[in-house]
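WARN no homologs supplied; continuing
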Amino acid sequence: MSDFDVIVIGAGMGGMVAANYLASLGMKTLVVEHSHHTGGNMSGFYRKGYYFDGGDQSFESLGIVFPILVELDLYDRIGWTKCRYRMQSPDFDFFIDSFDQVEEALQTAFPEEKGIKPLFREVRRVSQFIDANCTPWEFPLIHHFSLKHLLKLLPYLPKLQRWLKFSYREKVCSLIRNPNLRNWFTHIGYYRMPFIFFAGFWHLWMKDYWYPQGGMQHFHDLLAQRFIQAGGVLRLNTRITRIESDSGKVTALKTSEGERITAKRFIYGGDYKRLVWELTDPTLWESGFREKIKEARLTEAILNVYLGVRRSPTELGDTLKAPHVFYFPNYQVIFPDQLSPRDVHRSMWVALNHFGLDNPNAAPPGQTTVVLQTYSSYFWENCWLNGSSAYPRSTLYRQFKNEIGMHLVETAEHILPGLKQSIEYFEVGTPLSLERFTLNTEGSTGGWCYDTELSPVFRLPGLNLIHTPLSNLLTCGHYSVWPGGVISACLSGKIVANLTAGRKPFAPLKCNG
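OK structure emitted
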């Protein structure tokens, strides 16, 4: 006799969406999560009277997230702030409100550059493609699949083949003659990100990035509350150390405390490298596939600096003028690695994220919080002078990460003069921190690398790793599909819940099929 109908491993976006669907369908569902709260890379935390969003600072819907939240009766329980983006460098300062505005600002900054308009002409084509197929609240092809909606994509197929290549991005960005600006356009975003995502981000920055008022953790707390109200069981501080199997099926989960938990079916919503290399019997996987997963490049890790400052939310908001501000001290676009110099973070872009007006209780009266972010590397400086996240955090590690965090503060002072002197609370999250709290290998932030040539998931037509060699184990989350991120994690949760329940992949919650 099994303990549960379904056990979901991991309480990130994918796992909690799957769990909510399954509980709502009447299946006895357990979620096990190693951390003390849900959310994964989207979670937030409190420190000494301050609240911070730990990883993701906002997210897109793309006609996927919002409809799923509507199905789960959660969308209207949260206020949503449409995020505004601002970009600044020594040469330009503009808001990403429209393509005309962006082009005009860049052309003013680089009056001799003839390639800006041709580049954005192609970017606009991607934006038009997105507009033609979805809005933040609707994606007919996914939620109401039909041949009619599928046929709408046929004229775009030749373009999609080009857009899905990084080499095409290099080609289009080569229209920019200024070498520094060309390098910036070619490389901003994730490493070797294909053109469709480079262009798509401009579209999404303008139209489709959202912040749940009250914070990311508030959003995930509501998701967890709904799951429990639907009859689900949530166990936090429970780490799974082994997925036991026999005859091609999972038989039980083993926890770090030695407990065995059984179910009829299982969903894994965690790190895929851990699934293949740590949790399951290695003979289940083809040796070539195991090695491919082991060596596969992941999306970049982030260095986070969490600040409580002596400025009111209104004062800081009036200075930043947008919840998300990207400051570029140069146009290098560095992706740090183990060989990068000690001062590498001094030369990098910094994102300043501030939602003080949307989180009035995130700081003591008269104060507010801001999160600084940039790319980093898990392996840099021999794993941050600490070896790895598996080792106890040494005094040297803590001193070192604080030193590097101050490099970001110094860069951010180009936007917020006097920031350093106004700091009341200071905390730094390294890639080691992210791995420890999320169990994402190397602290990766968006699943597999976005480069179609480097991603182990990029294989048509499925673009997923949902199915496993174990017949009663499916996977969800941003490692299960390509490209990774909040959108795909959310969608994968719905898909695997439906498959687990014997339904069609995109079936709506209140439908029997």
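The chain is about 35% helix and 20% strand.
OK
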